[in-house]
Amino acid sequence: MGAPLRLLPGDSRGAAASFLGLLAIIAITIPILNLAVPASSPLHVSTYATALIGKYLCYAMLALAVDLVWGFCGILSLGHAAFFALGGYAMGMYLMRQIGPRGVYGHAVLPDFMVFLNWQELPWFWYGFNHFPVAVVMMALVPALLALVFGWLAFRSRVTGVYLSIITQALSYALMLAFFRNDMGFGGNNGFTDFKDLLGYDLQRDGTRVVLLVCSAVALGISYLACRAIVASRAGRVVRAIRDAESRTRFLGYRVESFKLWIFVFSAVIAGVAGALYVPQVGIINPSEFAPINSIEVVIWVAVGGRGTLHGAALGAVLVNFTKTYFTGALPEVWLYALGTLFVLVTLFLPRGLMGIVPLRAAALPEPVEAK
Amino acid sequence: MKLKQFCVAAGLALAALATPHAVLAQATIKVGVLHSLSGTMAISETTLKDTILMMIDEQNKKGGLLGRKLEAVVVDPASDWPLFAEKARQLLERDKVAVVFGCWTSVSRKSVLPVFEKNNGLLFYPVQYEGEESSKNVIYTGAAPNQQAIPAVDYLMKEVGVQRWVLEGTDYVYPRTTNKVLEAYLLSKGVKAADISINYTPFGHADWQTRVAAIKRFGSAGRKTAVVSTINGDANVPFYKELANQKISAEDIPVVAFSVGEEELSGLDAKPLVGHLAAWNYFQSVSTPANKEFISKWKTYIKKPNRTTNDPMEAHFIGFNLWAKAVETAKSTDVDKVLAALPGLETPNLTGGVAKLLPNHHLTKPVYIGEVRADGQFDVVWKTTGTVPGDAWSDFLPVSRDTEADWVTLKCGNYNTKTKVCSGQNYK
Amino acid sequence: MTARPRGGWRRLTLLLVAALLATAVRAVAQAPDEEMRAALDGLGEAGFADKQAFAERLVASGHRSVRPLLEAWLDDRLYARADKRTVIVKAVDERLATYDLVDPLTLADAGTGAPAELTRIGTNNQLRRALRTALARFSFASPDKSVRLAAIRQMLPTLDAATVELLRHRATAETDADVQFEIATAIALAALDGDDVGARRAAVGTLSSRLSSDVRNRLAALLEKSDDGGYLEGDEEVRAAAAAAIAAIDGRRRIYEGIETLFFGVSLGSVLVLVAIGLAITFGVMGVINMAHGELMMLGAYTTYVVQTLLPEHVGASVLVAVPAAFVVSGAVGVVIERSIIRFLYGRPLETLLATFGVSLVLQQTVRSLFSANNRAVETPAWMSGAWQINGALAITYNRLFIVIFTLGVFALLLAVLKRTRVGLEIRAVSQNRAMARAMGIRSEWVDALTFGLGSGIAGVAGVALSQLTNVGPNLGQAYIIDSFMVVVFGGVGNLWGTLIGGMSLGIVNKILEPYAGAVLGKILVLVGLILFIQRRPRGLFPPTGRAAEGM
After folding, report:
1. Quick one: pLDDT at residue C26?
2. Rounded CA gap, C23 and A114, in Å?
3. CB of A58 within 8 A of CB of A247?
4. What is the pLDDT at residue C13?
5. Mapping DSSP to helix (H, G, I), strand (E, B) and coil, where does residue B416 land?
């Protein structure tokens, strides 16, 4: 890489400021427009829209996590949906325990799906999930542990490129099959639904939804800042060097494996937290969240937005999902044509994603080097 | 520059979300259709979307309801469960539909349930399911286990003399519950535990060689064996193909299925399957004037003479007519008024009987057992004498034996008759 | 409707056989036709129990029309006319305006009738089984060996003295060794019911060399105790011999079960190889992460459906026609994709993922628009249905067998194309060193299109095979895409032999695990095994070597 190590366009101070500014605007205006403006006003933002935006913000966090490892470290993970789903399950378990005796069978401890499948007592891995702090720790810890073990095995033996992509996919697929099993104690295909409240606040109330939206915006902002700090740090330079020339970096004496491992684990934690915020907002977590196709979609959001630019990834996630929401409602019969064509066109004409539209900055930069 | 780019994109997104949708359509009554048109469930659900569109068309030709035309709002939840909840919210909050016809899988219903209860919507759910549920805001027009599974097993036990049972299902909640109900029922009828084999396979299971060989072995013990199949959707075709290839004929080991109907059979070569059974509340081959009319209307509407009809379509037919009747009775599309008018209403079904909505939001239905014919239709070989009332909470499961649903007098979907408590109610 | 007691059929068989034997010697007294006619004409309205009762009476009467009538009934050609008269329809064909009718008793022509005025006299499983068993006796002397075998096997579970007598009769005339073997089985089974201890011992001896479950069940019954605590079989030596025979049979059956599991594994493996082999070209050789691979297979399956619709009379040939047709269709679509999209993306493999994913969505929706979201019925040709019964315990299904052979054939052909033809040479040259290949005068663009077309065409061919196994619907591709990527990566990207061996071993391991762990856990274990394997060998079973490895 001939050009001096410098920040990619997305990470410029101005872009970061506008990204955070936009987040702040969302976090401030949406609650007001939803709660304070009467429903009759054209400015009113419906709860439906609030929930949607909240969901998009969680997706944006997930995209950020994928971009961190793919865009900056060259690890194409097709298994990040697994970390997202695990975080979601941790939150789901807390929410299930919060239902308490208000389930349809009125059992004091066991969730409904366990009652009618004749479980006699709570499995050990459900202990502690009735405490919110425990659940919060697990949301980050479980994805982190999985990423640590998996990453340690994979990076140590120098599994790279498509091999790594495919085994991350295998990991996610295996977890999906496992969670589909009713004998696992995670509710099988139906997963967890019918949540009542979070920390005592009714999940169906508009106020709670708005707070969740604000939390998602704040979490996204913090993750963004953290990712940006990592990328801009000395370690971040090494990480980018790994992306561009792994062997060369290794020969320079850097412990490539450790850098990869830690950035992978950190990324998994962001994905897990995103999943945890996602679940109370959509009201369901089930094993299809682990589906490999979901991981591929996340990669596509990042590619559409602009790989290697943090806010580009986030924007890509929002835009693709907004397009999907719009098309599935407006053109239910043909939306797949539209979405499919969009992906093809973006790849052909916007190789840097939407962030590449800006011609001046882009021209000055070296071509992104593919991770192979 | 960056900021501008952002703001334009985000502003566009927000504007599109916030704009009130089609303000001018006040004069029509909106009917939401929440069926997957893409993804894995599109195979089954697309037909149901078309059914409802046809029913709306018919109703509009008759002048609509309460002097207003009906307007369908079709969305595609794309076989994605969180998307079901999102689309349900869109239909109820943004489009303000009067009623929604939708869902197929249990998980999609579970996903939208809190949305319907929160927004006090009205959902007609047309598919046979595992029971163990009764919501104030849902009308279950498909069969509960006692309207499909139990009569089918009764038929096999009494008429065919089956003594050994394989309960083969896909690993999800409907087969798990149905098999639990059936196992309890069989044991109560004196079948030994060793004569019941229960097995689960994953969704979309495509390689059935090992399982079919195992069924063959289980069935070779010298006593009449039958398979009760709660195998879901995609896995059925490879399952039946493997049965045919391993030469398991219906005369040796009959398979009775609860999710294989005319439409599923139209997607495979039925000749090797002749004699295998299905239990439903409706068959296309039932010859009544109402059914003939429905079939010919459907073929005209869909413009394909070889399209079949099936049980969930009849459920939508009944559901739509019930709703229309309730709206006319209540003289309003207001959900509370319609819900008050619904229980006790009767409407003719397609097989010459009457479907009555019970206080537990389930229907009375006749049960038919059909044998597969070479042309993909069914020969009815047995039917119940009258109709069977749908039971939301199975009497054969210890957990739900004491639970009752009654939205007329008790005003509760899961009332425990022992503790006299109405638990788990969300938004009263 | 109640089930007929089984005893009825036993009695009936006795009567039937007596009647059959009698016919051979002298003319049998005809039952009064009028009475029979009245019963026959009531069939249109009768329940299944009455129908079965009628069949019993008919058989017992020894009427000369028993056989044609029962055959027509079993064949769904027995109809009731509007005037309640029961008739046999000569041939049921929807395209005929009128059906030619035959009187079921006199077998004389009975004019014609419009299909709309005829109501089929339905059967159910029990009735069909009874009819088939009744008819089996007529087949003992059939000139076709397989018909004789099937008839005897049909009778094995419900043997009675009269049938055995008939079989003894037949044994003297029978020349075929296989049929003799089955007759001996039947006679030995019958001998177990006799009073002669010596005959019973001899029978157990004969039966110990058999494998079928009917025999095993009968032997196991000898060891059961009756309600008063005594053994059903009085002789201790017979019981000991039976126990030994059961052990021997079980031992041999276990071996055959092992062989069966192995075959299941090979057959699953060859499906995996078949779905992966096209990807081994587009992904393995060209480096294109082709997410539309599954949809190209789907196109192949739909091509089979279309070919079958165009050739409704020739189901057997249609599958053979579909193979080249699917190759051309999918191959052409592949070339179009390559020329219009992928050629702009060489050197950026991960972006091919994005673009081909878009293509896969479009292709899925296209077939949904063209053929509707419903599955399409693809018929299995006669030569691919059924099973090859090797012995009483082992049968191999023809469709699986053909797919194994087909996979190996496709593999060999592809290998030959790559290794022995000019085109193959060019493909290998371009994949190894594009610049050098171009310098040597190879039109690399043309080769790219051809290679992608070849991979896509093979995906289409795989689709033809899948149409014989699973759903032909818009989701067909998605069900296999993950598996095919795993196989290619497991075997080693760019190595065809790796794909073959990788696919086969994944299939076999999966099938060996399945009986113990269950289908779900088995698959999870295979996936975890795959992950751990890649940690041990980060480039698959057969890692690419030399210059090609650097490109990976």
Report:
1. 42
2. 68
3. no
4. 55
5. strand
- C248 burial level (CB within 10 Å; 0-12, 13-18, 19+): middle
Domain ranges within chain C, ordered by starting residue = 6-130, 140-234, 256-385+421-550
Q: Could you read off the pLDDT of A221-240 as tens digits, one per residue?
A: 999 999 999 988 888 888 88
d(CA C487, CA C504): 9
ipTM over 0.90: no
What residue type is assigned to position C282 of the chain?
T
Sign of the Cα torsion A198, A202, A205, A206 reads: negative
Q: Specify the length of chain C in residues.
A: 552
Whether pLDDT at A369 is above 60: no
User: Is residue B319 within 8 Å of residue B139, measured between CB atoms?
Assistant: yes
**Alpha helices (runs of H) in C156-280, residue ranges in sequence order:** 161-173, 177-191, 197-207, 213-222, 236-279
Among B46, B159, B238, whose Cβ lies nearest the Cβ of C3?
A: B159
Tell me whether residues A332 and B75 touch, CB distance under 8 A: yes
What distance in Å separates residue A343's CA from the closest CA in chain C? Answer: 5
> pLDDT tens digits, residue range B116-127?
998 999 999 999
Q: Which residues pair with C89 in a beta bridge?
A: C101
Residue C18, pLDDT score: 55
What does the DSSP 8-state code read for residue C31? P
- Torsion over CA of C344, C349, C352 and C353, rounded to 10 degrees? -170
Paired residues of B196 in beta bridges:
B165
Phi, psi for B346 (deg, rounded to 5): -125, 145
Question: Do C551 and A169 lie within an 8 Å CB cutoff?
Answer: no
Model confidence at A10, pLDDT cuts 50, 70, 90, reads: very low
Concatenated DSSP letters of B205-255: ----HHHHHHHHHHTTSSS-EEEEEE--GGGHHHHHHHHHHTT--TTTS-E
Question: 390-409 in B: which are within 8 Å (CB) of A?
Answer: 397-400, 403
Q: Tens digit of pLDDT for each residue in B58-67?
A: 999 999 999 9
Is beta strand C86-89 parallel, antiparallel or unpaired with respect to C78-80?
antiparallel
Of A113, A137, A136, A133, residue with least CA distance to A123? A113
Lookup: tokens for B169: 């299902």
B166/B219 Cα distance (integer angstroms): 9
Q: What is the pLDDT of residue C2?
A: 42
A243 Cβ contact partners less than 8 Å away, ≥ 6 residues apart: A72, A73, A74, A369, A371
Nearest one of C125, C72, C126 to C102, comparing CA atoms: C72
A5: Cα within 13 Å, side-chain hemisphere: 15
Six-digit token string for A136: 């919060």
Tens digits of residue pLDDT in A128-150? 888 999 999 999 999 999 999 99
Q: Which residue stretches of chain C have pLDDT < 70?
A: 1-32, 544-552
Contacts 24+ apart (CB under 8 A), A315-320: A315/A60, A315/A354, A315/A355, A315/B6, A315/B9, A316/A63, A316/A353, A316/A354, A317/A56, A317/A59, A317/A60, A317/A62, A317/A63, A318/A56, A318/A57, A318/A59, A318/A60, A318/B10, A318/B13, A319/A354, A319/B9, A319/B13
Q: Do B241 and C373 touch (CB under 8 A)?
A: no
CA atoms within 13 A on the CB side of C512: 12
Q: H-helix or E-strand containing A278?
A: helix A256-282
Query: Tell me, which fold does domain B149-257 have in CATH?
Result: Rossmann fold (3.40.50)
Q: Find the CB nearest B414 among A46, A104, A204.
A: A104
Interface test with C, best of A146, A163, A320 (most C CBs within 10 A): A163
From chain C, the residues in CB contact with A346 under 8 A are 354
Nearest residue in chain C measured CA to CA from B209: C264
Q: Which among A69, A76, A162 is the top mutation candidate for probing chain C, defined by the most C β-carbons within 10 Å of its own β-carbon? A: A162
Query: Strand order of the sheet with strand C86-89?
Result: C109-113, C99-102, C86-89, C78-80, C119-120
pLDDT the model gives residue C420: 92
